[in-house]
Amino acid sequence: MTADRPPFRDPQLPFAQRVDDLLGRLTPDERIALLHQFAPPVERLGVAAFRTGQEALHGVAWMGRATVFPQAVGLGATWNDDLVRRVGEAVSREARAMRARDGRVGLNVWAPTVNLLRHPLWGRGEEGYSEDPALTAALATAYTRGLRGDHPAYWRTAPVLKHWLAHNNETDRDTSSASVRPRVLHEYDLRAFRGPVEAGAVAGVMPAYNLVNGRPNHLSPQLRTHARTWTDQPLLVCSDAGAPSNLADSQGYFATHEEATAAALRAGVDSFTDHGTDSSTITARVRGALDRGLIDPSDIDTAVRRHLHVRFRLGEFDPELDPHAGTGAFDTPGHRALALEAAEQAVVLLANDGLLPLDPAAGQRVAVVGPLADTCKLDWYSGSLLHRATPLDGLRERFGADRVTHAEGADLVRLRCAGGALRVPEAPHGATAAAPGAEGALDPALIAGRTDLPPLTTDDEGTVFALTDWGGGVLTLRAPDGRHLSVADDRRVRASADEPGGWVVQETFRLEPHGDGHLLRHIGTGGHLSVAADGVKVAADGEDAPAVLTVETVRRGVDEVTAAAEAADVVVVVAGNDPHINGRETEDRTTLALPEAQDRVWRAARAANPRTVLVLASSYPYAVPEAAAALPALLWTAHGGQAAGTALARVLAGDVSPAGRLPQTWYASDADLPGLLDYDVIGSRQTYLYFDGRPLFPFGQGLTYTEFSYRDLAVERRGDTVHVAFTVANTGPAASDEVAQVYVRALAPSVPRPHRELAAHRRVHLAPGEERRLAFAVPLSALGFWDVAHGRWTVEPGPYAFLAGASSADIRLEGRIAVEGPPPAPRPVRERGLAAADYDEQRGTVLADRTKESGDCVTPAGAGPGELRYRRCDFGHGVDAATLEVAGTGTVTLALADGTVLARVDAEVPDPPYTYASLRTPLTAGGVQDLHITLRGEIRLAALHFTPAPA
């Protein structure tokens, strides 16, 4: 090439060759600079600045107004791969269009989230698709294909999957460790990531904040041993925000940041998201690690290659050839229609005794009540609304404004103190309607509260506030003009926020009994309200005494609901959550129960009018057994984005039949749940796969306004594929979608297997009387499990049932096949030894890190003993000794199933936990036996090796 057009500018050359050429032209400092999220330009080469990370979970987020689609869990409820692909396509087109106007909009999009919805109390459940790995992988593949585009070389956006790996808790999320046994790792968590990576639509992955088996996810060896083996293309690993610093700070895994940064880089992290837009700290750490010999230049080059490869894929260096460069599709009629279609398909009808659908032509009077009746809630990863339709808006439009009434059901209160009642003063002339700087914020966590409005004062009359109780004692207070009380950096209290929001929510309070009155604690700062001469504020420690308040109820919310219900022919109660309160990023829920205040609302409505429909608009499941039993109709929808209200009204009116399906189990009570930090879905019998109880509503549940029949199931194995086919017919009166689901079950397993496991699904639309033959090709490998005895994926011989139906509990057809082959072999422990982590069963243990780089070991979970069981260990004609790899201090006891003690080893290995000793002990065993191991003390067991007895 000429000097004017170096090889990296030549589109005829392969990307890899062009990357190498550009890399070779960069100085060492320029290469290091590319490791930070905000990579600076290299002006001498004409290389622009680049930012990794644009949030795009269900629309372009944090960059101002954009089309807002339903939350990810709502997209999961559609069970519609094609729809989700089209949503991804629309989001990526809007990202391109927005970038054309604002260069801050990134094309390396951090979406989707594929963490499985294992536990319904996880605060970020709204971000995932499903508790099932197959459904999650299918929808994530669809979304990333839409984000990527279909051009063979150039990508519209470059998706990054979140969050690697086994991440389902916000409680202590940066210091807690998920204990993930090999079977759970391979059968559950990895599968959600593997599908989209193997499909070739993923540019990278993001590690999670937490630890897995004692090792921070940002050092995960599985990035190398699994994720990067699933594709022949480079994968860019982007750290989560602040996580690199956590390695040496909150996690204390390394003594210095240089060691931590070096370890993350060697483990495969390529882009460091830390210290916001200031790259100087990270680049200094990299240079320090390089100077100390903790890394070498090749480690930096490897990461920079991956970074550059993404940019070549995005067409940055071939603007004249980039097929997406002119994309201008933004807020198009097609995108608006798609947002409505997605919201409609996300609605799940859980119960209906015939009350629904409602007939708009019947002239019925409809009361729409509840705290979410006239709201269109956004979440942390939403863009700003271009359009807005609340349930009240939608029902008024569809049923007639004169036939629809509204009652929020919030208590109206005055708050009195010794100096008078709290009052919202008038805003000064010229005050803006929106918070300055809020539109298009690169990081909404950095938006300060408003200080341009006057703080609350007191007078005799005061202001009447709408008090909404969100559960757990958390409440919001809203002024008559619709603005919520909020606290800014100056600690003054103002009526200034349109909605609760922000990284630290400044609009939530808690009333605390105090003598004959209450103190009002501001949850965001932890301080109490006080009244000063210059207005109401949150007192800091040692400042003004808190104000003792008397709550004067002007009107009870349930009285308003009762009056509205009595005057209506039908009542629609819209309850649920605000995605910024009581369950969100940084905060797990504490209960499945509906907030007591909302429970009172539906009960009041039903008492006044039995024709009451409960709509739960929420980011997660609730346990509502009494409502399910008492009410004639119950629906659930995730927060449905800009068209949520219109979609709900169309479903209630029968314009479209509901056909969404639950993407996760709805349990009947908190007693059904395992511990939040218990990740062993097999041992703890979690999710629909293993849950032994009776759920309130099962995985895959969802009703329609018609009936479907299933018939003529055919199941046939041909080679490595099982072909399943059956006919679905609409036998009812209404056109509707149906979600046909195929499950598989091992009928004679040698190890615990799921009750049933989703193998395939399809959403189809059928007119009344129409039928369709559906055919599915299920890989034989879908029948398998991770065989810990031999360290491989195994499809064991035996009978398998293929189940077809409308949910995991509504099975209509069953067919069987038999897999032939030799019976499973016992564990070859005599020849191969035994990895401690490869147990069949355990009690009282956790998995920990064998070394800081790789490997697992087992240690007692607490002060009591830990027990491990290894089934069918083949000692052959006999062994006469065992060698244990142990660290720390304690005792290891080896025994047979009948209690016969084979050996007891006392260990006292200095410099724990990573210094191991090989301790040999006499041990006599032969044949095939179950081996039981008991661990006591602060000891870690990594492996056992057995010495064959002389022949």
- Determine the fraction of residues in helical runs and give it as a percent range: 10-25%
> Rg, please?
30 Å
Largest sheet: 7 strands, antiparallel
Number of helices: 19
User: Which descriptor suits the 3D outline?
Assistant: globular
Which blocks of ≥5 consecutive residues have pLDDT under 50?
A: none
Using DSSP, what is the number of strands? 47
What share of residues are in beta strands? 25-35%
Q: Could you tell me how far the N terminus lies from the C terminus, measured between alpha carbons in angstroms?
A: 71 Å
* Nearest-integer average pLDDT: 96
Query: How does the helix and strand content classify structurally?
Result: alpha+beta
Please give a structural write-up.
By secondary structure, this protein is α+β, with helices and mostly antiparallel strands. Helices cover 20% and strands 30% of the residues. It has 19 helices and 47 strands. The strands form 13 sheets. Strands 39, 40, 43, 44, 45, 46 and 47 form a seven-stranded antiparallel sheet that branches. A six-stranded mixed sheet has the order 1-2-4-5-7-10. A six-stranded mixed sheet has the order 11-29-28-27-12-14, sandwiched between helices. β30 and β31 (721-730) form a beta hairpin. α14 runs parallel beside α15 (596-608). The protein starts with 14 loop residues before the first helix and ends with a strand.
